[in-house]
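Pilot study result, target chain (192 residues):
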Amino acid sequence: MKVEALNQIDRESARELWQKYQTHRAYQSPHDAEIAAIYKRIAQGKTVIRALESIRAAGVGADKLPKLAIARADTQRCYFHSRANGEVQFRDGRWWNHQSKIALKSRTITMDWPEAPQQNFTPEAIVPLIPVHLRPKRGLANYHILWEAEWTKRYPVDPYLLRRFGGDAWLVVAAWDLTDVERAVMSSRLRS
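Predicted structure:
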């Protein structure tokens, strides 16, 4: 899967830039703090991506649905919804209802994507399983999964586990390919 990485500078340059931001911490705006956080993670050798921009850049497939999807790591299904105002949503609840607006908002990723085609239905994708050795021990709701979406009942293959720490700045915590065994077990559970 091709993603928009923010690691275009080397670790040493990132460390120097992070140190410059640290010397002026008292005068930082929220944007400065986010920039410093990105430089810090790059200096630590970690991968930082722009997940929402990656979704836009990947575009849509032949089925006129996004090639990539994103959802909270503690969900099982992701629903895609496009709006006439150019906004799209990836959420774990199929229907939006105003009484549960607060509860659903925390489970929804909303982004501007004017080029996204309008849908007359709500497509559903399966959110990939996080293998037990990569799964966070606690706080799974604080993580997201980015993957090549299968808007069918097929189980996806190659996800990323992400932790958001800024607007469109996401730390890649893990990347993996689901094995045939993992896909077979999870696919059989979808049918039962």
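One observation from the pilot: The helical segments are 11-23, 30-43, 51-58, 101-105, 180-191. A full batch analysis is planned for the follow-on phase.
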